[in-house]
């Protein structure tokens, strides 16, 4: 009988442990209703940053007087599309976001939830993005001028600083008895000018490209 009682005692103890484990696992999961969209995650995930609002939400819900919906999910009046990147960052420590989302939107949510590391990461990404958009590169700008054979020497000697000779094109003569002195040429020079990568700010010389063709100096 004693053996049987001990056996029953062990069974009851095991059963109680299973129930406690089940309750513990169940309480680990948390539902959040963010702007009408439900997210299911764990207290461990939400508690990654102990200074964040989400940590306080799962630790001090009663003190925060947080409302819940009919399914028991915590109600948060924020944009759900931007909450996804926030939650994923807490899960695996990386910022992953769709192309149609703006970094500034994620930053606003990170600041609202007070997730320090995410704020830092998003600000760094914004800085890198802006630097890339404002990156400049050198592009050749060409200027074409017409001159006679007599003016050719002067043309060569008066090339402005920064410009270099590219090509001399003989376009013939305007005189029937034309000689080399009366021959006409197109004198082509080029210059490297910085241009914004996104093309929003063209250099002033850009507007002059090929506009001087046919103009005598």
Automatic annotation (TrEMBL):
BTB domain residues: 28-130
InterPro entries: BTB/POZ_dom, SKP1/BTB/POZ_sf, T1-type_BTB
First and last residue of the signal peptide: none
Coiled-coil intervals: none
Pfam families according to UniProt: BTB_2
Transmembrane segments: none
Protein name, UniProt field: BTB/POZ domain-containing protein KCTD5
Species the sequence originates in: Aplysia californica
């Amino acid at each position: 009988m004693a053996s049987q009682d001990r056996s029953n005692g062990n069974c009851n103890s095991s059963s109680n442990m299973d129930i406690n484990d089940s309750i513990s696992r169940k309480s680990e999961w948390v539902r959040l209703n963010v702007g009408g969209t439900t997210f299911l995650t764990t207290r461990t995930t939400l508690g990654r940053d102990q200074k964040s609002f989400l940590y306080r939400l799962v630790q001090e819900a009663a003190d925060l007087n947080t409302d819940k919906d009919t399914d028991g999910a915590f109600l948060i009046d924020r944009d759900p599309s931007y909450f996804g990147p926030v939650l994923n960052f807490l899960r695996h420590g990386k910022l992953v976001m769709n192309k149609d989302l703006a970094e500034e939107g994620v930053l606003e949510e990170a600041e609202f939830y007070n997730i320090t590391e995410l704020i830092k990461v998003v600000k760094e990404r914004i800085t890198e993005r802006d630097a890339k958009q404002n990156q400049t590169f050198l592009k050749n700008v060409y200027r074409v001028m017409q001159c006679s054979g007599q003016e050719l020497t002067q043309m060569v000697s008066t090339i402005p600083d920064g410009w270099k000779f590219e090509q001399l094109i003989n376009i013939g003569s305007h005189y029937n008895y034309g000689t080399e002195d009366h021959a006409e040429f197109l004198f082509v020079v080029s210059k490297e000018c910085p241009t914004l990568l996104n093309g929003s700010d063209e250099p002033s010389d850009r507007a002059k490209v090929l506009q001087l063709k046919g103009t005598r100096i």
